[in-house]
Amino acid sequence: MAALRKNMQSFRKLNNICTSYCRTSIARHLKTIFSKGDPLEYFLRGDVETILRRITGFDPERTFFHHKVKYANRPTYKVLTDEELQQEYQKGEEIKERRLQMPPFMNCREEPDTIIADDPDIAPAIDSNYVFVDISEDYERIKGYSLRPVVIRHENGQLKPADWHTFDRVSQIYFPVPGREVYPPKMFEEDNLEPLLKEENYLYILERACVQFEPDSSDFIRVTHRIYEHIAAHHCFDCLRSTRFFGPMAFYFAWINKIEPLLAEMIGRDLLVDAIDLINLKRIIHNQSIKEGDILKIIKDYYLEDSNKHHIEVLRDALNDLEKRLEAKMQKKQESC
User: Fold this and answer.
1) 8: Cβ contacts below 8 Å, ≥ 6 apart
2) For residue 56, is it left (φ>0), alpha (ψ between -120 and 50) or beta?
3) Rounded CA gap, 8 and 41, in Å?
4) What confidence tens digit (pLDDT) does each residue in 215-256 have?
5) Model pLDDT for residues 152-175, shown as the tens digit of each residue
6) 56, 243 in Cβ contact below 8 A?
7) Which of 79, 86, 122, 243 has its CA 20 to 30 A from that of 312?
8) Residues near 173 by Cβ (< 8 Å), separated by ≥ 6?
9) What is the 3-state composition of the chain as percent helix, strand, coil, each rounded to the nearest 5?
C-alpha cells in the first residue's frame, strides 16, 4: 500500500510533466512538419492535397459503396420541396467529403524513452509494473484518444511514459473507439494478411486498418504499405480510385520514387492529365521544378530524364501503346476528312 500511495502522489505531482508529455501525441504530428525528410510536411501542403484529390476522382458508385450485410435496409422514398432537395444534396456533399477524407501519410511514431521519475527505494515493494492512466472526462487539456497521459511505474522504481502498445490497449479499455479492438485482429498478422491480399480485398483491409490503428502506428504503416506494393505488383490501381486511399497510395509511390507502374496505368487509361499531376507530385516531394507545356512532351521528358530505371520498362511499353493509339486516331481523322 505504501508503494501504491507513493505512486499516486508521484502521479499527482507529475501533472505538468504529463501534460507536456501527453501533448506529444499532438506534438508528434506537429513537430514532424518541421522535421527534415518527413512526409507529413509535404502531405499537408495545399498544392499536394489539390493534386491528390484531383487524381482520386469521383465515382458515386465507388465513393458511396456499401459493403454487403446480412440484412439490408429497405429503401425509403420522400416527397421533397426544392429547398428540401437542395438540403439533401448538401448532405450528400458532406458525406462525399467524409468518404474521401484521406488518412495522413506519416512516419512511424517513436517509442518514448523518457524517465519521468526514478525512485529505487520503492523497488523492493513492487512486484509488477503499475499502469496509471488519466480517465477524467471533463478535462480541458484532454480532447481525444491520443492526448491522455499514460505512465508506467516499473519494478525497478522508474516512472516512464507507456510504450505505444500499452498506451493503445489501455486507452481502448477506458475510452473505446467504436469498431476498434483492444488487441489487433489476427487478420493483420502477415500469415493471415497474404490470403486476403490474394483475394484482392484491398479496400476492406484498408478501412479496417484505419479503424484499428492510428495513422502513425507501425502496424498501420506496415499494413498499408504492404497493400500498396501488392496492388502495384498486380496492377490493380483502379480498385482504389474514387476512394480516400488512392491519394495516399499515389503519395507513397511518389515518396519512394516508384511512380512508373501507376503512371503507366494512367497512360493506359488515357488519364493524361492525372499522369501530369502524378509527375508534378513527385517533383514537389523531391523539391524539383515543375515543367509546363505539351502533355505528351512532359511525359516523354520524364521518361527520358527522371524515371526510375528499375521500373522503366512498364513506362516504355505504356508510351509505345499511347503513340500507337494517337497515330490510329490521327489516321482515322484524316480518312474521315
Assistant:
1) 132
2) alpha
3) 39
4) 999 999 999 999 999 999 999 999 999 999 999 999 999 999
5) 999 999 999 999 999 999 988 888
6) yes
7) 243
8) 182
9) 60, 5, 35
